[in-house]
Amino acid sequence: MEQLISLLDKELIPIAEKVFNGERLSFEDGLKLFESSNLTAIGMLANYVAEKKNGKFAYFNVNVHITPTNICIGTCKFCAFRKSKNDPDAYELTTEEIVKKLKDYYSQNPNLTEVHIVGGLHPDWNYNRFIEIIRAVRENFPDIHIKAYTAEEIKYIAEKGNKSVEETLHELIEAGLNSIPGGGGEIFNERIRQKICPEKITAEEYLQIHKTAHRMGLKSNATMLFGHVETYADRVDHLIRLREAQDETGGFQTFIPLAFHPLNTKIPNANYTTGVDELKTIAVSRLILDNFPHIKAYWIMLGEKVAQIALQFGADDIDGTVTEEDITQAAGARAGQSIPKSRLIKLIKEAGKIPVERDTIYNVLHIYNSEKQ
Ligand code: V47
């Protein structure tokens, strides 16, 4: 600890002392961390917290993403994936096609434990169509964990059925839903939301839907889209609002900072994020979100290399095998869309951590701690 403190710039020393005493960091502390270029020391502090929470474990899972449609009435300016109904690249899968896709994935990989289902706000799909997808997946795959529908989609489905969020979640759970992904968080600050996604659910709605899900027994994840038009203060505000929501319910499992990809988007002067900014954002997230068990370095958006290094900067999860991913690909992803389990294990081991295969809710399935695995 003393050695680490000696590496820190003077203004970071009181923050480090708080971290070592287990004290909560303030908004100003978060801002100072983002404004500092003392990246290695911030990373070491974040790694200290990550290891206090999860030891040397770094998690991954065997999962697939299915995106039932790219047709969306949304107007989010950062999204390169959405299409209008008449667009030549627009598609919508039938329920049978969704099940068939999953059957094909399963036959290639019987160790699959999770399906992540998110898609567009299709103007013609009714309430039952969204429920039917979950029910069909559950009927065909009784044991798979279904992580589906972002808070934005849940609000849309509820409105389509003239139902409350509680009623909608209740029916989704009955159909087979197990947890909720973190998409739709973007940046909570209303001024930024007006610029990048003016028609999207508000931050309050996003948080309310997650808290409702938590109270109904579902776990969920949270995200933050960074590197577009937001400021450091907006990022810290986002993190602190998540921390407050987590104080109320404790239902968030992992926080996933999503690195903005600019291609084909409508964000003016958009650019790719940099390695330093990505690692700092992971580290500051770990330090501010003292009540989140996990921080995920999503390799699809960070790329394998930065995601691996992030495991020494506060992240303890690298996400999964994924297999098919469309949102980042449309916006100029430089990572692929699929990665073998053996590669995830190698990335984690070389980062000095112990690879742990988990299910979606962090039950340990296998610990890869021998030399040959
Ligand atoms: O909400 C859209 C983001 C999110 C772009 O919960 C973009 O385990 C970068 O939330 N550049 C969806 N990001 C993905 C998501 C997610 C992914 C993996 C795991 C989990 C989980 C959640 O993708 C959207 C939006 O914030 N996004 N466009 C873009 N151009």
From TrEMBL:
<comment type="similarity">
    <text>Belongs to the radical SAM superfamily. MqnE family.</text>
</comment>
<dbReference type="InterPro" id="IPR058240">
    <property type="entry name" value="rSAM_sf"/>
</dbReference>
<keyword id="KW-0474">Menaquinone biosynthesis</keyword>
<feature type="domain" description="Radical SAM core">
    <location>
        <begin position="58"/>
        <end position="293"/>
    </location>
</feature>
<keyword id="KW-0408">Iron</keyword>
<dbReference type="InterPro" id="IPR034405">
    <property type="entry name" value="F420"/>
</dbReference>
<dbReference type="InterPro" id="IPR022432">
    <property type="entry name" value="MqnE"/>
</dbReference>
<dbReference type="InterPro" id="IPR013785">
    <property type="entry name" value="Aldolase_TIM"/>
</dbReference>
<dbReference type="InterPro" id="IPR045567">
    <property type="entry name" value="CofH/MnqC-like_C"/>
</dbReference>
<feature type="binding site">
    <location>
        <position position="76"/>
    </location>
    <ligand>
        <name>[4Fe-4S] cluster</name>
    </ligand>
</feature>
<keyword id="KW-0479">Metal-binding</keyword>
<keyword id="KW-0411">Iron-sulfur</keyword>
<dbReference type="InterPro" id="IPR020050">
    <property type="entry name" value="FO_synthase_su2"/>
</dbReference>
<dbReference type="Pfam" id="PF04055">
    <property type="entry name" value="Radical_SAM"/>
</dbReference>
<comment type="function">
    <text>Radical SAM enzyme that catalyzes the addition of the adenosyl radical to the double bond of 3-[(1-carboxyvinyl)oxy]benzoate, leading to aminodeoxyfutalosine (AFL), a key intermediate in the formation of menaquinone (MK, vitamin K2) from chorismate.</text>
</comment>
<dbReference type="InterPro" id="IPR007197">
    <property type="entry name" value="rSAM"/>
</dbReference>
<keyword id="KW-0004">4Fe-4S</keyword>
<dbReference type="InterPro" id="IPR006638">
    <property type="entry name" value="Elp3/MiaA/NifB-like_rSAM"/>
</dbReference>
<comment type="pathway">
    <text>Quinol/quinone metabolism; menaquinone biosynthesis.</text>
</comment>
<feature type="binding site">
    <location>
        <position position="72"/>
    </location>
    <ligand>
        <name>[4Fe-4S] cluster</name>
    </ligand>
</feature>
<protein>
    <recommendedName>
        <fullName>Aminodeoxyfutalosine synthase</fullName>
        <ecNumber>2.5.1.120</ecNumber>
    </recommendedName>
</protein>
<feature type="binding site">
    <location>
        <position position="79"/>
    </location>
    <ligand>
        <name>[4Fe-4S] cluster</name>
    </ligand>
</feature>
<dbReference type="Pfam" id="PF19288">
    <property type="entry name" value="CofH_C"/>
</dbReference>
<keyword id="KW-0808">Transferase</keyword>
<keyword id="KW-0949">S-adenosyl-L-methionine</keyword>
